[in-house]
Amino acid sequence: MNFVDKYTLKLGRILAWGFIIIVVMMTYEVVARYGFNAPTIWAHEIAGIIAATAFVFGGAYCMADDSHMRVTAIADHLGPKMTILVNLVSASAGIIYLTGLAFSAWQMTNNSLFKFTADGTWDPERSGSTWNTPSPSFIKFALFVGTTLFLIVLIQKLFQRQIQTD
What we know:
This protein is mostly helical. The protein is built from four helices and no strands.
C-alpha cells in the first residue's frame, strides 16, 4: 500500500467519525428544540458541512480500499488481455469524468470562496440562513479536493494494476 492509499484511508476513517458527531448534534438539536423550546441556529449547517465533506471523500476512500463498486459480470469471463482492456477503458472513463468534475468544482470554488469586495474584504458565498455561514463555499472546496483525491487514487491504481499485469 502506497502513501496515497494510506493517506486516503486514514482521512476516510477520520471523516467517518463525522457521522457520529452528526447524530450527537441532531440529538442535541431535537432535545433543545422540543424539550426546551430553544432550537439551535448552527446544528443544521454544521451537519450539512460534515456530511457533504464525508460523502465527497467516500469515493476516493472506496477506491483506495479497493471496495469501489464494480460490475464485473462480463469482465470476469474475459481473458487476461481483454480484462486489461476493459480496465483501461473503465479507468479512462473515470479519469475523464473526474477531471471534468474537478475542473467544474474548482470553477465553482473559485467563484464562491475566493470573492472579495472592492475594498478587499473577503465575501464568500453564504448560506442565507439565520447563521449565514460560508458553508456553500466550503462544501464546494471539499468537492474539489475530494474529486481531485479520487482522481489521483484512480490514476495511481491504474498504474499499479498495469505494472502488476506486465
